[in-house]
Design a protein that fits this description.
Distance between the termini: 34 Å
Structural class: mainly beta
Number of strands: 11
Radius of gyration: 13 Å
Largest sheet: 7 strands, mixed
Length: about 120
């Protein structure tokens, strides 16, 4: 299984970015897929999640209304559209996947840096 993020970069406050996570090797079973971020000196934080079986999505209050997670099943790619970015969104962003029902996320990408100034 491989997860490869792309799309990070530097943007001014109020701007937008779209992150991509290309996946390969995932079995055809329901997965929870999510985006996480970690800033230096801070704990890892979940910013969005979706479930391949139901299509349900979840956002914490910090990103609700600004971030949108989506999955292109044909392209095996997970996206995170981020709008109205704030300096506090600056972090390394990771995508992750795990079979539904698993206690923790099993598969992780290498991360892509997002910097908001």
């Amino acid at each position: 299984v491989q997860l490869v993020e792309s799309g990070g970069g530097s943007v001014q406050a109020g701007g937008s970015l779209r992150l991509s996570c290309a996946t390969s090797g995932l079995s055809p079973i329901p997965y929870a897929m999510g985006w996480f971020r970690q800033a230096p000196g801070k704990e890892r934080q979940g910013v969005a999640a979706t479930y391949t079986g139901s299509g349900h999505t979840y956002y914490p209050d910090s990103t609700k209304g600004r971030f949108t997670i989506s999955l292109d099943n044909a392209e095996h790619t997970l996206y995170l559209q981020m709008t109205d970015l704030k300096p506090e969104d600056t972090a390394m962003y990771y995508c992750a996947a795990t079979p539904c029902g698993a206690a923790d996320y099993k598969y992780w990408g290498q991360g892509t840096q997002v910097t908001v100034s």
